[in-house]
Amino acid sequence: SQFLKQLGIHPDWQFVDVYGMEPELLSMVPRPVCAVLLLFPITEKYETFRTEEEERIKAKGQDVKSSVYFMKQTINNACGTIGLIHAIANNRDKMNFETNSSLKKFLEDSLSMTPEERAKYLETYEAIRVTHESSAHEGQTEAPSIDEKVDLHFIALVNVGGHLYELDGRKPFPINHGETSDDSFLEDAIEVCKKFMERDPEELRFNAIALSAA
Question: Is 86 an annotated catalytic residue?
């Protein structure tokens, strides 16, 4: 939340670690929750799934509200920043921004842009990136050592207009995971996280973070 302050957001919201997916552990997360960030490893299994998912959606189509704020990822190690922007941008009506907030200005400027233009704009936007990459790993108890070629990736799960969307800048579009509500959002988002974990049962590096009322 130190970090939200640096971006010029009043401390009504905080990032909270989700310590486990069982109901009693979820009940410890302060409510309401307006976004969940999932940190997970990009493995071969995941990449295979991602390709299949993309082909399936392109064939079948899906419903994505035009009000969903989505951006592509063009900067390699900026998935944390983009996850954060996705979380805040799709809850901007709930956030209290300081007048000179760099993130507020970024969102206002980029609202009318395409997902690709937003990505390009972020490349020029030092203020947000620097703040984030320096504090992205504050929350990580153990940073992976440099020689581990682990590609860890962040995605955001948000509720826009009663649907749960997965926002991943590496994907060509948001993924609609079906209906949700403010009350059930944390549980619904965790169900999506569980699917990621079930696809890679040997993997342990999954970490969910909730954007919760402070």
Answer: no
